[in-house]
Amino acid sequence: MPLTDVAILGAGQAGLSMSRCLSVLGIEHAIFERGDVAERWKTTIWDSLTTLTPNWMNGLPWQPYEGPEPSGFMHRNELIGFLQRYATRCRAPVIGRSNVILVDSQCGQYRVVTTRGTWRARAVIIATGYCDLLRVPNLSHALSPAIESLHSSQYRAPEQLTDGAVLVVGASASGIQIAEELRQAGRNIILSVGRHTRLPRRWRGHDIFWWLTRLGKLSERPAEMGDVRKTIEQPSLQLVGRSDHANVDLPWLQERGVRLAGRVRHISRDVVHFEDDLHVTASTADAKLARLLREIDTFAGVFARDQRYPVRTVDVFGRAPRSVSLRSEGIRTVIWATGFKRAYPWLKLPLTTANGELEHREGVTRAAGVYALGLRFLRKRDSNFIGGVGTDAWEIAVHLANFLGQASKTAA
Question: Domain 3-132+342-411 adopts which CATH fold?
Answer without folding.
Answer: FAD/NAD(P)-binding domain (3.50.50)
